[in-house]
């Protein structure tokens, strides 16, 4: 005696961790630590991923605060521990969830036909936790899309095109575009036979054209043009 008892006020440490709830793999993630009131402080930071401890780089000083940086290399939960003078800081351990948008795969999307459902698959089972966003647009406007969960983060997606034009499929995971997107899906007319496109009204005494569209081979084409004479009295 006398016996010295060390008292630590961990509430002096201010952490900013909410932005680390979802973090991308293979990219640096960082957070700031501040110590109110200054004075001597011993901060210890540790990050444990799915397969072990990760290197953490801490920079700064007691006056401006400290920044801790680490790079997750595996999909899954990462536990962040911060100790102040040997005591856990309030709000830790904190769990950050690492994801990998490059591991989301989009199945083949076949050419569509007006009025008939177009379906394809999206597999995010290996990408980790997050939000999957799927949008399909035609001529710059989004169209109704049905997403059917199949279990284990796999989905069946369908839409019914209403017009014959290119449709754009965009898939994003945690607001990051999936590899291969956007996809361009061609949509043809609903008729089984050929379609004819006319340029519209034209001037008299000048050549006019029409366009015949057909996916296969056409033979014995016969085109008849009938005029209408309007009489004025």
From TrEMBL:
What SUPFAM superfamilies does the record point to?
Answer: E set domains
Instruction: Check the record and name the Gene3D superfamilies matching this protein.
Output: Immunoglobulins
Query: What InterPro entries does its record include?
Result: Filamin, Filamin/ABP280_repeat-like, Filamin/ABP280_rpt, Ig-like_fold, Ig_E-set
Extract the signal peptide range: none
Sorted alphabetically, the keyword list is: Repeat
UniProt Filamin repeat ranges = 5-98, 109-187
Name the protein family: Belongs to the filamin family.
Protein name (record):
Filamin-C-like
Tell me what organism the protein belongs to. Answer: Nicrophorus vespilloides (Boreal carrion beetle)
